[in-house]
Amino acid sequence: MKRNFVITITILLCIVVLLVIKTKEPKEMTIKSNTININQEIFTNEELKWINEHKNRDINVGVAQDYIPIEYIDKDGNPSGMGIEIIKLISELTGLRFKMYKNSAKETWDEILRSTSEKRIDILPAVAQTKNRLKYLEFSEHYIEMTQVILGHKDNQKLVNGIAEVNKKSFVVPRGYWVIDGILKENPNAEIIQVENMEEALKYVSNKKTDYTICETPVFTCYREEGTTKNIKIVGELKEKNKIHMAVRKEYSELIPIINKVIESINYNELYEKALIMPKNNLNEKKLIFIILILTLIVLILIYYRYTTFRKLVIAKKEAEDANRHKTSLMTNISHDLRTPITVIMGYAQAIIDGNVKSEEDKEKYIRRIYEKTKYLNELVDDFFLLSRLEDGKLILVKEEVNINNFVKSIVEDTAFKAEPQNIELSLKLDEKVEIYKKVDRIKLYRAIENIIINAVKYTEENGSIEISTVLEDDKVKISIKDNGIGIQKEDITHIFDRYYKGKNARKESIGLGLYIAKEIIHKHNGEIWLESEYKKGSTFYILI
Ligand code: ADP
């Protein structure tokens, strides 16, 4: 139970972790518009031919993760931003199929550029033109031009007039960001620190780890809305504006005039607005939910452990008390059961010692009684010994292969003398079709069957009859002991195998242990024991072993 609980908690934790990781991962994006509207008038025949030839293949798109609002992955893992809106438009007008290239869960811009130069990515929706990139990319017209600002910590930055003015200061920029070349061109002394993305760069400045970063105004505005730029202010402006283009690798150069026609046809304001239906970066929210979940789970685990420990203590205490009470009542029972025969023995012995028994014949009678009572005492002590072993769970079976028919026969022969004084007929009906062999503890099983046969004798009137039979049922043997004695009353039947239970018909010397011991021994052999009885007509006890 405890183990299961721990496993469940661990699985839950894993699911939560996986969910959090999963939501961060970009989804597969296939852009294929439902409303394809190929405009024959915009495109030339050659362009339409190229479009038709390339319609059924995926064009891999490299998407920057957090260049908001130009290009980013939104909170649901979908690629978004102005560049993506243009891609959607191209797909709508041409029927071309675009697919987001996904190499790792969170790709850096640097990795995207590398994948493009290595021909895994075919098109970049938002990219600035640099000398180096011209080696492997063809650029469209630019579709947005953005002012670039220098950002510094709000506490201690003077206004600067361009990068050249900033002397010996450190700049933090996303890896692969084109502005690195620009910074170094204008200020070769600048120290450049490259980080994974814009958000990280802003955090560096916010925490005063570096002096400056450079960012386009729309991008800065978006991050400001999210609260990432709390401690940051604009301290200067770059002379050059950042022009954003679409770019394809050389093999797709025919796509450039097509893209240019789409760019020409767009309504810039509409596009900007669409791109700015911005996701709130709910990463912090996710983190918070995650932490709350973890804390709740930890609290639950702690409560559970406290509760189980407490419960265990209560149960242990109760068990100890029960055991004590049980032992005391057992001792009382045992002392009482022993006292009766001992008193009788002492009485007879005293009479002989005192010389009250005169004739030899009486003396012999007294001694015989003493002997019988001592024998009975001996049997009682045996029962108590077995009982204590059973109570402690220490009854060990020593099994051996036994021929059941011969075994039952020997028990009947050994007990026959008990039936003689009342002239009770003991008969055997053995299933002798096959030899029945079973692995049993000979001594203990003897005791169990003997108890039942002796009971049958005890509770059968003079001249009655008892039939003991065996029958093979599948791979088990059923032993029945049937008497036509006084029978058992209905209300006694359900309790008859209980420890110390005596029926309403119980004889004077009855102590209620025989059937309990027999039942325990049979159960230890993985067997079954039950009875059928009709009051005043007789009883049949069954053992299946
Ligand atoms: P004990 O024989 O010491 O009384 P048992 O556990 O052997 O203890 O039997 C419990 C009770 O079951 C007896 O007191 C008696 O009432 C009833 N009983 C057992 N065997 C028979 C039987 N063959 N016929 C009628 N009653 C029986």
Automatic annotation (TrEMBL):
GO terms for cellular component: membrane. Its EC number is 2.7.13.3. The keyword Phosphoprotein applies. InterPro entries: HATPase_C_sf, HATPase_dom, His_kinase_dom, HisK_dim/P_dom, HisK_dim/P_sf, Sensor_HK_Regulatory, Sig_transdc_His_kin-like_C, Solute-binding_3/MltF_N. Its main location: membrane. One of its GO terms (molecular function) is phosphorelay sensor kinase activity. Residues 333-545 form the Histidine kinase domain. It is an enzyme of class 2 (transferase). Pfam families: HATPase_c, HisKA, SBP_bac_3. Keywords: Kinase, Membrane, Phosphoprotein, Transferase, Transmembrane, Transmembrane helix, Two-component regulatory system. It catalyses: ATP + protein L-histidine = ADP + protein N-phospho-L-histidine. It is found in: Membrane. The chain crosses the membrane at residues 6-23, 288-307. The keyword Phosphoprotein applies. This is histidine kinase. It comes from Oceanirhabdus seepicola.
